[in-house]
Task: inverse folding
């Protein structure tokens, strides 16, 4: 494929960040936009220079000149939309979370295999340069044998123009029974993906305490046991509703700490820019002395993960190489997500590898 003709399905709040990478890539042409909201869809088609607009997915899928579809519709629609696109012979990139259930994610993967097409789940954290660097440092042995991973998410406020311009319609489907859960499903799939991807180890047990605040927020403390019993992980989500933080995007930030026998790595930002620290820091030491290495010369803007994720999909289609994340990896992310809810519900450890279906925390969407 010389130039990939892409159709974009769903032109809502996150679409511009996703489409930017395609618009920047000379190997791709954004040829069509489909959205049931005609005003939103036509405006996006105009902004992105896409010659075709469709209100109906079947009409867009009938356009035989399109090679691939970027699915950016609400999560509960991913399963049907992705499978329809694959059955129509298109390659597909779909935003996280892959789907509302583990089986749906796997069925999407099976449809890709059946139709001989690429399906990947777009996970911007996998393509975020500071996290890519952290993973490489671990794999290169910079901290010796890894022993722990700590992931913190802090959600607060921001006055970023991105946040101010979000359309409220994008929130409705996240807050009712169309979603199996709140923040720990919708956003934290990124962090579950990191818990599995950064160390490239499977997680065998989860313990968790999950609370609820302000409809959607789910502060929590989580403990992961890895397949290597000498490796432990922790994940915390805190909510500071009156704290304004520096961010060009959502009012949230993430911090990652990976410890090994010989050192530790900090990734000090992701969605936001809260801390005045280098995006990645490596601390090492031996009997000759201690050393801090600051990595500042990398693109630490959170939007870079989206741009690179889109371009990675084009790479994969152009070269016929696998595209991250695979549907199976995305299904494992969902297993971890639902294991956290389940462990908190029953107050006991849960093996995420045994999870099927989905888990909805008690009281979710009862309002
Ligand atoms: N990577 C990230 O950090 C990130 C951030 C936000 C959202 N997302 C994911 O992206 C997806 C979209 O999220 P969003 O915030 O943009 O949602 P949104 O509700 O703002 O946008 C969805 C768009 O899809 C359109 N749509 C709905 N049903 C349709 C249909 N049947 N056919 C065509 N168009 C249809 C809507 O009109 C809307 O414009 C979700 O899966 C979400 O989880 C990922």
Result:
């Amino acid at each position: 494929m010389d130039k990939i003709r892409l159709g974009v399905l769903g032109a809502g709040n996150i679409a511009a960040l996703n489409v930017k990478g395609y618009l920047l890539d000379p190997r791709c042409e954004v040829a069509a936009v489909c959205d049931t909201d005609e005003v939103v869809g036509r405006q996006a088609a105009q902004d992105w220079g896409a010659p075709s607009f469709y209100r109906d997915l079947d009409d867009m899928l009938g356009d035989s000149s399109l090679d691939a579809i970027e699915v950016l519709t609400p999560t509960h629609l991913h399963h049907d939309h992705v499978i329809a696109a694959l059955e129509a012979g298109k390659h597909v990139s779909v935003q996280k979370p892959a789907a509302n259930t583990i089986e749906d994610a796997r069925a999407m993967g099976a449809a890709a295999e059946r139709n001989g097409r690429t399906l990947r789940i777009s996970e911007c954290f996998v393509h975020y340069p500071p996290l890519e660097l952290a993973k490489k440092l671990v794999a290169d042995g910079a901290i010796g044998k890894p022993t722990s991973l700590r992931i913190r998410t802090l959600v607060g406020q921001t006055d970023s123009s991105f946040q101010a311009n979000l359309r409220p319609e994008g929130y409705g489907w996240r807050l009712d029974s169309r979603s199996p859960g709140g923040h720990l499903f919708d956003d934290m799939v990124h962090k579950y993906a990191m818990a599995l991807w950064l160390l490239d180890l499977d997680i065998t047990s989860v313990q968790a305490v999950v609370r609820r605040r302000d409809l959607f927020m789910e502060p929590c403390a989580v403990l992961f046991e890895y397949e290597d019993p000498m490796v432990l992980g922790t994940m915390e989500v805190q909510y500071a509703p009156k704290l304004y933080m520096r961010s060009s995007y959502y009012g949230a930030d993430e911090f990652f700490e990976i410890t090994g026998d010989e050192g530790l790595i900090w990734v000090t930002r992701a969605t936001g820019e809260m801390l005045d620290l280098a995006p990645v820091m490596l601390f090492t030491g031996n009997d000759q002395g201690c050393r801090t290495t600051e990595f500042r010369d990398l693109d630490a803007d959170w939007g870079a993960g989206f741009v690179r994720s889109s371009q990675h999909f084009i790479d994969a289609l152009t070269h016929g190489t696998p595209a991250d994340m695979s549907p199976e990896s995305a299904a494992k992310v969902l297993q971890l997500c639902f294991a956290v809810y389940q462990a908190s519900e029953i107050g006991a450890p849960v093996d995420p590898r045994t999870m099927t279906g989905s888990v909805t925390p008690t009281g979710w969407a009862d309002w």
Summary: Residues 327-346 form the longest helix (20 residues). The chain is about 30% helix and 25% strand. The pocket of nicotinamide-adenine-dinucleotide is lined by residues 9-15, 34-37, 40, 57, 72-75, 77, 95-97, 124, 167, 169-170, 186 (CB under 6 Å).
